[in-house]
Design a protein that fits this description.
By secondary structure, this protein is an alpha/beta fold. It has two domains: 124 residues, ATPase, nucleotide binding domain (Nucleotidyltransferase, domain 5, 2-Layer Sandwich), CATH 3.30.420.40; 152 residues, 3-Layer(aba) Sandwich (Hexokinase, domain 1). It is built from eleven helices and 14 strands. β1 and β2 form a beta hairpin. α5 packs across α8 and α8 crosses α9.
Length: 337
């Protein structure tokens, strides 16, 4: 990198199905503090380049690199966004940004890359476990969709890898979940974990339990849901009061957390996550009491490997923008290689 007295910045972005967040990071600031942070509604634009032109139009600082975490697989510098009809190409982004180097990574690679620099107050631990030095780390993140990723220590430095494990086939563990699978298969040709453990899936869980009749639906909430464009926040909000949560909403979120715990355990087994499991995404910080109460039982429930599972540390990420932070870190690392 060029040593100048003038401040130099990395442009970092976190592109999800709903929003794009952009920010600048001073490459000399070890605290990774974002400046010039802005959020854009993805549906209002036709491309990432269109948003970048708006964002950079009035900037007066020197940007020497860019890095973007995107919600979809990245192969050979090309990404097709999972829930948005955008194709993103590193080379095109670099041309749009006057030739500066651009790093494009899966959003869970971005989020996972933040873990080595997260501070204790960015995390809530729900299972202390026993951290194994240089052990693999698993990351699972329910938001609009369900992201999964992992980190492996290579020569003493953690490197993040992408996964599309959230789209793997849902495996029911009991009669209730078997009934859920049958219900969802009547609506969709295929049922993945993302169909359940995501903001997109929560209304289906609610409707499934409502039709089973185990809990009565609140007439007030029913009316709110009828007129809501996005039902998920209403269900979460109704489930999370400390006193007198809505019974049907609570049952919905309990089922959500049970299945999330089971899938997080599956991911932990696949990578032997002795370095820990981190729960990210937009939903977990809003349901911390539910996670404390219902996540670990399903996470531990792995038969002969239960003893191993109980040793794995589990933490909830409460940093507001871990994928943005991690993407900045990826961009800086790539600059100094």
């Amino acid at each position: 990198m060029n040593n100048k007295s003038i401040k130099q910045f990395i442009l970092a972005g976190d592109l999800g199905a709903t929003n794009l967040r952009l920010a600048l990071f001073d490459i000399a600031n070890p605290q990774y503090q974002a400046v010039e942070e802005r959020k854009f509604a993805v549906k209002e634009f036709n491309s990432l380049e269109e948003i970048l032109n708006i964002y950079t139009n009035n900037l007066t600082v020197e940007i020497i690199g860019a890095s973007f975490a995107v919600a979809g697989p990245v192969i050979n510098g090309v990404a097709k966004i999972t829930n948005v009809d955008w194709k993103i190409i590193e080379e095109s982004l670099s041309e749009n940004l006057k030739g500066i180097p651009v790093s494009l990574q899966n959003d869970l690679v971005g989020m996972s890359s933040s873990i080595p620099i997260l501070q204790p107050d960015h995390l809530i631990n729900i299972n202390p476990g026993q951290v194994v030095e240089n052990g693999a780390v698993a990351v699972i993140a329910p938001g609009t969709g369900l992201g999964e990723g992992f980190l492996v220590s290579i020569n003493g430095e953690y490197q993040a890898f992408q996964s599309e494990g959230g789209h793997s086939d849902f495996g029911p563990r009991n009669d209730l979940e078997m009934d859920l699978l049958k219900y969802l298969r009547s609506k969709y040709s295929r049922v993945s974990y993302e169909r359940i453990c995501s903001g997109l899936g929560i209304p289906d869980l609610y409707q499934f339990l409502k039709e089973r009749g185990d809990q009565k639906e609140s007439p007030v909430l029913a009316n709110e849901l009828l007129n809501a464009q996005d039902k998920t926040p209403l269900i979460i909000n109704a489930a999370t009061p400390e006193k007198d949560p809505d019974p049907l909403s609570y049952a919905t979120m309990k089922l959500f957390v049970n299945i999330l715990g089971a899938e997080a355990g599956n991911l932990a087994l696949k990578v032997v996550a002795s370095g820990g499991v981190y729960i990210g995404g937009g939903i977990p910080p809003r349901i911390i009491p539910l996670l404390r109460k219902h996540f670990l039982e399903a996470f531990f429930d792995k038969g002969r490997f239960q003893n191993l599972m109980e040793t794995i540390p589990v933490s909830i990420i409460i940093h507001p923008q871990p994928a943005l932070l991690g993407s900045a870190r990826v961009g800086i690392i790539n600059l100094i290689k």
